[in-house]
Design brief:
six-stranded mixed sheet; alpha/beta; eight-stranded mixed sheet; 449 residues; UDP-N-acetylmuramoyl-L-alanine:D-glutamate ligase; Protein-Tyrosine Phosphatase, Chain A; 17 helices
Length: 449
């Protein structure tokens, strides 16, 4: 198939969304298998075997951790692919050379090859003939892209879960597990242990795994899975004696104290107190794999940035975009934001998808902000902003401080109102969903066109 633009490549892969919905009811975490993904890779000649890889899963921090790992690999001299999801505003964010976009001719050429190779693809299981999902095609595309451009390493982030994720068709050199929280409970399970069980399945036989600080029930699951697979497990809380971090105008000032008595001092361009842990996990992984280059690795991680991670947009009234979408991640984000701008007079633009822990997330927001503008987190996944607005108003009744709660469905209008109502010496934070952060970035571009 001949594509003229990268947008046409994306449209081709996105066209499978409608096809996959027809049989989506069959594909639960109990019945779905990776058979179809393996068949696709057979057809493509297994491009995922053409490079070394690191596999990253978790509820929060996996995109940032993956980007730190990729930056470190580049600093060590390796051509490195980076596969992330979701994107903020540009699909190219999903498939990059450690954050640097591939040129369009390469993206288009590889897209054409993928379309040609799968045009006669057929897969039949107990439910009859089924089509690839869009995410399966994204993953195949990333593998093919990294192979065709001679990447030596790739850092691969899971999409949803781990066990049944399309990316769980690689045999990596390391498995990395970020913090586990309650998320996507309808698909992954309704307890931390169940969710950890899904994520733990990226641990492979005899492949080392690197594990962030976890809740006890998640840690127990990972310990058991590592033992069952004969995988050496490195736990961040055992390999460090302390991690300290504070948000400043210059960046995220962080100190990592290692168990061998050494220390790493960094000022990370990517703000947010969680970034110190994410960076430490990436450093630990690279050190144990023999890929750490003293000084060079740290400098690369200090420069590393990723859209939608406490990303600051320049404005007389500062605007921050963050994809925090769980209770714990919102708490960390608000603490960092408060270190920079205090607690009074700021505005939050908030939107969250339907399948979230809304009561506890709303409480986090109301504890930090007196002015809340609820807006639409895109249309790609389901949300109920009217119900969210009602919940905010109901929960705000018990708050001692007066709360301004607004429902502004249009992200452009929401940002315009936030700029009008927020004093110049205060700030605006958009959070609750990566999709909401992306919509506010688009709104910012429209207002500044």
């Amino acid at each position: 198939m001949e594509f003229k633009t990268f947008d046409e490549v994306v449209a081709f892969m996105e066209s499978f969304n409608n096809l996959e919905k027809k049989s989506a009811d069959h594909y639960t975490t109990r019945t779905y298998r990776l058979d179809r993904m393996f068949k696709l890779l057979d057809l493509l000649g297994h491009p995922e075997q053409d490079f070394l890889s690191i596999h990253v899963a978790g509820s929060k921090g996996k995109g940032s951790t993956a980007s730190f790992l990729a930056a470190g690999l580049v600093a060590a001299g390796f051509k490195t692919g980076l596969y992330l999801s979701p994107h903020l505003t540009d699909y190219r964010e999903r498939f990059s050379l450690a954050g640097v976009f591939f040129d369009d001719p390469t993206l288009i050429e590889v897209g054409g090859e993928l379309a040609d190779r799968i045009k006669d693809f057929r897969f039949t299981d107990q439910w009859g003939e089924t089509n690839p999902t869009t995410f399966e095609l994204y993953t195949c595309y990333a593998f093919l892209l990294f192979s065709r451009t001679a990447c030596q390493w790739a850092v691969i982030e899971t999409g949803l879960g781990g066990r049944l994720d399309a990316t769980n068709t690689i045999t990596p050199q390391a498995s990395v597990l970020c913090p586990i929280e309650l998320e996507h409970t309808a698909l992954l399970g309704d307890t931390i242990a169940k969710i950890a069980g899904e994520k733990a399945k990226i641990i492979k036989p005899s492949v080392p795994c690197f594990i962030a600080r976890q809740k006890p029930e998640a840690r127990q699951v990972f310990e058991a899975e590592a033992k069952a697979q004969g995988s050496t497990a490195y736990f961040l809380d055992e390999e460090t004696t302390g991690i300290a971090s504070r948000s400043t105008a210059e960046g995220q000032v962080s100190t990592i104290l290692w168990k061998d008595g050494s220390r790493t001092d960094l000022t990370l361009a990517m703000r947010g107190e969680v970034q110190a842990d994410n960076c430490a996990l990436a450093l630990l992984t690279l050190k144990k794999l023999g890929l750490h280059r003293q000084g060079l690795t740290e400098a690369a991680m200090e420069r590393n940035r990723l859209p939608g991670r406490m990303q600051k947009l320049e404005e007389s009234t500062p605007i921050y975009l963050d994809g925090a979408h769980t209770v714990q991640s919102l708490g960390h984000l608000f603490h960092s934001f408060g270190q920079l701008h205090g607690k009074e007079g700021n505005t939050v633009i908030y939107g969250a998808l339907r399948d979230k822990d809304h009561p506890h997330m709303v409480r986090e927001v109301l504890d930090q902000f007196d002015r809340v503008i609820i807006s639409t987190p895109g249309t790609y996944k389901a949300s109920d902003i009217g119900g969210l607005y009602d919940l905010f108003r109901e929960m705000a009744k018990d708050d001692a401080r007066h709360k301004e709660i607004y429902l502004v469905p249009s992200p452009v209008d929401a940002l315009r109102q936030a700029l009008e109502q927020t004093p110049e010496d205060k700030a605006i934070l958009a959070c609750g969903s990566f999709y909401l952060a992306g919509e506010i970035k688009k709104a910012y571009d429209i207002l500044h066109a």
